[in-house]
Design goal:
Helices cover about 80% and strands about 0% of the residues. The protein starts with a helix and ends with a helix. It has twelve helices and no strands.
């Protein structure tokens, strides 16, 4: 009887393991198919006209260029991360380490979860009314970046908060027993332990920024001009995803749209690798 039960349990474990491996294979196959399909469609256009990477578009001169869109994307990613990371991580630290009222924490967590489920088009409308019109920023990359800050704040805050909760309480108690203060414990013990969770939230935020178009249509604009960083934030500009939408849906130039999609995927990969590398440096620096 015991052998029969053990055999059934063994077969059940093997079946569940097989289903998990099958699920992993399906997800990996879909991701690889999408990655190589987009590259196969977009890279030939880039090889055919490599100057489009360093040129501005001009209908009069019949020049295809996406350099302004690449720069606008980099500008808006940097501006958004500079604003959202301190606010999101600081909020998570306060809610996890300092807040005493459980009702307040529960209310803020409920509000952040609600915000994370709102469609991006609504963020775009709110950003247009608040940042573009009420504060008078006008249609510019800064208004788009601030809209993306509000949109991505729940992601950073929740991922950081969950990472902070995974740090064993014994780590904190041991540091307190050695005479360390509250902030020193957080800075030298808690944050280095959960830096991977913060990086995960940062990567998710970067991915959402790079893939966002609906909110930026109402706030960042559609211009295709090359500016410096400061002037670019004050000016209207189309990011790569907005340019992809324009070329694919309004102009019907799918070859350029696929080229932009390929650049977006490669740019996402590069930014994620840089983020992981910076996380290792931060982990060493915070722990010192």
């Amino acid at each position: 009887m015991i052998d029969r039960v053990s055999a059934k349990r063994k077969y059940r474990d093997m079946l569940l393991k097989g289903l998990c491996i099958l699920s992993l294979a399906v997800v990996a196959a879909l991701a690889l198919f999408m990655f190589f399909y987009v590259l196969a469609k977009g890279v030939p256009k880039l090889l055919e006209n490599p100057r489009m990477l360093i040129s501005s578009p001009s209908v009069r001169k019949n020049v295809e260029g996406i350099l302004p869109n690449i720069l606008n994307t980099v500008y808006i990613v940097l501006a958004t991360l500079v604003m959202v990371l301190p606010i999101g991580v600081g909020s998570a630290i306060y809610l996890t380490e300092y807040a005493k009222s459980r009702k307040l924490v529960a209310a803020i967590e409920f509000a952040s979860e609600t915000l994370s489920g709102i469609p991006s088009i609504i963020y775009g409308l709110v950003g247009m009314l608040v940042f573009v019109q009420f504060f008078g920023f006008g249609t510019c990359l800064l208004a788009g970046a601030m809209t993306l800050v509000v949109m991505n704040l729940p992601t950073i805050m929740r991922t950081t908060q969950e990472s902070l909760k995974t740090v064993p309480q014994s780590y904190r108690e041991g540091a307190f027993a050695l005479g360390a203060g509250k902030w020193r414990v957080i800075r030298t013990v808690v944050l280095p332990t959960c830096i991977n969770g913060i990086v995960t939230g940062c990567i998710l935020t970067v991915g959402r920024i790079l893939g966002e178009s609906a909110a930026l249509l109402f706030t960042a604009g559609l211009a295709h001009k090359v500016y410096g960083f400061i002037q670019g934030l004050e000016s209207s500009g189309a990011t790569l995803t907005v340019a992809l939408y324009v070329y694919a849906s309004e102009r019907g130039q799918f070859d350029i749209a696929y080229a932009i999609a390929a650049i977006l995927m490669l740019l996402t990969l590069v930014i994620n690798l840089l983020t992981s590398y910076m996380a290792k440096l931060m982990k060493k620096g915070i722990g010192e």
